[in-house]
């Protein structure tokens, strides 16, 4: 009977040591919480990014006046895409040509 009690107490002690180690690891490895100021800063930045995205999707603007590229509203762009995609081969050729033109390096300027 004495042997069973000693074994039980040894097992209980081992369990308590492991529980203490788990608690200590949880306590010491927890990251510091963000303060309220930083949380508000992040919310403000997210709102600005979302607002800029909505503005970009819903406004027309000149992207590169030198190359003659403009950005159109998303609704208009979808309508144009559907209309022009009636002939897929012509659409792809036109799209590739416009993408290559947009990616061209700007002309060199002599400062002399």
Can you offer a commentary on this structure?
By secondary structure, the protein is mainly α. It has one domain. 69% of the residues lie in helices and 6% in strands. It is built from 4 helices and 2 strands; from the N terminus they run ααββαα. The protein has helices at residues 2-28, 36-58, 74-84, 88-103, and strands at residues 61-64, 69-71. The chain has a two-stranded antiparallel sheet. It is elongated and about 95 Å long.
Architecture blueprint of SSEs:
Elements: H1 2-28, H2 36-58, E1 61-64, E2 69-71, H3 74-84, H4 88-103
Antiparallel strand pairs: 1-2
Report the helical percentage. 55-70%
**How many E-type strands?**
2
Instruction: Specify the overall morphology.
Output: elongated
CA radius of gyration: 32 Å
Q: In summary, what is this structure?
A:
69% of the residues lie in helices and 6% in strands. The protein has 4 helices and 2 strands, in the order H-H-E-E-H-H. The longest helix has 27 residues, at 2-28.
Provide key terms for this protein:
112 residues; mainly alpha; two-stranded antiparallel sheet; 2 strands
């Amino acid at each position: 009977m004495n042997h069973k009690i000693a074994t039980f107490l040894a097992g209980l002690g081992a369990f308590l040591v492991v529980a203490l180690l788990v608690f200590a690891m949880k306590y010491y490895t927890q990251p510091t919480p963000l303060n309220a100021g930083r949380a508000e800063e992040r919310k403000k930045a997210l709102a600005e990014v979302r607002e800029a995205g909505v503005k970009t999707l819903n406004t027309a603007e000149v992207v590169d006046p030198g190359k003659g590229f403009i950005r159109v509203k998303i609704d208009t762009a979808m309508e144009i895409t559907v209309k022009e995609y009636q002939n897929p081969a012509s659409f792809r050729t036109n799209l590739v040509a416009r993408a290559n033109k947009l990616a061209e390096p700007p002309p060199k300027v002599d400062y002399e």
